[in-house]
Design brief:
The protein has about 290 residues and is an all-alpha fold. Helix content is about 70%, strand content about 0%. The relative contact order is 0.15.
Length: about 290
Amino acid sequence: QVWLKQQQGQGLQTPIAFPFVGSMPDGVSPVLRGTWHFVCRPSLWQKTICPILVTLATTIASLIVLFGFALKPQAHALVNVGWPAWIAWITAVLAVIAEVALANLIVLLVLFGSVQSQIFRAVLEERGISAELRARHGLEELPEQCCCRDIGHSIRFLLARLPLLILTMPLHAFPVVGQIAWVLLNGWLYTWELEAEFMVMFEKRYSCAKQWEFVRARFGSFATFGAAAMGLELIPFVGPWIFFASNACGAAFLAEQIYRAMPPVEGQPPVEGQPPVEGQAVHPPGVDV
């Protein structure tokens, strides 16, 4: 408790530094920073109580059912097509773990998508990004997706992600390489889902077409962030308990990274870390980050 309070007091607005992050892809470091941020913020832990209780039940049930009824058939199917028995069983176990993660993903998307949104907004507010966006737009409140649009986006993401997740499941037949390919192919959509709210706040991109333009310009970061985030969420129990929430923190750090890289708007204070527009006076940022 004392250590956490010290970390909060000393690092509240200080970027979290790792000695090896500089050599990592742009999308990976926000995942690490988000995990550390979540661990050091007990105030965010309470938001995960209900998801933990529900996913505990679904994880136990999924493990019992899938290991009891799906493990052997999958392993025997691989042996029957000529796979060595030991590779077939390892692959079957990895496939079952992925299937459990998929079941938890469906539960989390349907029941607790709003929890990630709450954590995402809390981190943006703490980092000062929300205040800077309000000043940038000259608004007291940032634009939000209305209820109907929000529900529509959730349904579209669910309809888009689940078929892709299921269609790419056969990749788990290839140990390690298959799991890496699976999260890489599916990760960018996960990042898009997490960042959709930021696109609305930042540039009022409500439609999928306008958001796709934003995603396409940063596809590498979206793919690597999503792959790292999904890889962590594959871990039974702690995946849906900790990393489901910490990835929302990581998405906020990715949003901050994107925001800091954008050129300043003429007539507005420049984004910290970027040169001002020619002829524009430099003003100190209003929020210490």
